[in-house]
Write a structure and sequence with these properties.
Length: 300
Amino acid sequence: MTLQTSLMASLQAELYYWPSSFYSQKVLLALHEKKVNYKSRIVNLFEHEVNEPWFVRLNPNGQVPLLKLGDKFISQSDSIIDAVDQLNNVWLSTAWSAGLQVYWSLAPRLELEINVCSYFIYKKKKEYRVKSCKSVERLEKLREQYPELKEAYDIKIERYKKRGTSMFEKSDTVAVMEVLETLLDEVEEQLRKSRSENIIEHWLCGPRYTAADISLCVLLGRVVSIGLLSKYLDPAKRPALIEYWNQARQRPSVQKGIMGVKSAVLWYQVRKALKKVVAGAAVAGGVVALGVMIGQKYKA
């Protein structure tokens, strides 16, 4: 271990994330694969906490994931994974040039999170269109209230408008599904090649689980979450991909970062509800105590 790696390993890591966020899941898998100890703080996307001034000040992009490593904040999942990859000698990036070529040929299309989600959103486009408009209105109000964050909110407003438009078009959604079909055909071919070359264990780029597998696993997890598993993981058409997914699901990182999403969100909601109960009990206790004091005063 180099001096730089040793110093990075001693840094305190804290992750700001949302369990079902595509890019948060990529970072979660990387942290678990690297066995990095970290603190976590959930930033609720459904309650728009990424738009709150306290978070925008930490990350002007206003997006999760965000990793605090020592005194440094790192945004963008790939940048975070690169930083995490320096923390010990269990490298996620592959050392084989052939593997790198495979990864970079597929990588641009392994990042289909928003568009894949549009399949689900398109089916409820009226509901989501209303939510998107309300989000823009909230951001515009925040921009007025916090002029020092105007530039960050301007970018977020434009992002919401652009994303909202593409999500509601059927033609765009169909096109993305076709791209996904082609991508998974290429993945199937690569997995068959990897299986023929690596007898004991085979992943996307060879015998080692790498950053390429993280992207693929999160993408497959998203396909599962929107109910399209049977469509894209057809045993007759993609047996190697099914074998790959069954193998990947056994990894602790995938179980915690992808398969454990529902339990993570549920536990977050339970803790949040308990805090409200405790806070309410404290207020009620204070009111009772005040009432007792007032009563004693009048008796005196």
